[in-house]
Design a protein that fits this description.
The chain is mostly helical. The protein has two helices and no strands. The longest helix is centred in the last third of the chain and has 32 residues, at 39-70.
């Protein structure tokens, strides 16, 4: 019973997340029932995270190469 409850809660959270991303204009509507349209904000966050992510990956590659050279 406990696992079923966790799965149901996970599905509810997943559906709410999907609902917040859907833009009502995709359906030709303006009502909040069709979603909040947060996809544009999420896309801005993804684009803004690319630079710091590349810096982090570069640091990790340099660190791994340095550690391998010590052996």
């Amino acid at each position: 019973m406990n696992n079923i409850l966790k799965i149901l809660i996970g599905l509810i959270v997943l559906l709410i997340g999907i609902w917040t991303m859907i833009d009502p204009a995709w359906f030709g509507q303006t009502s909040m029932i069709y979603g909040l349209g947060w996809w544009s904000y999420t896309w801005d966050i993804i684009r803004g995270a690319i630079g710091p992510m590349l810096i982090l990956i570069g640091i990790i590659v340099i660190w791994i190469t340095y550690e391998e050279s010590k052996v």
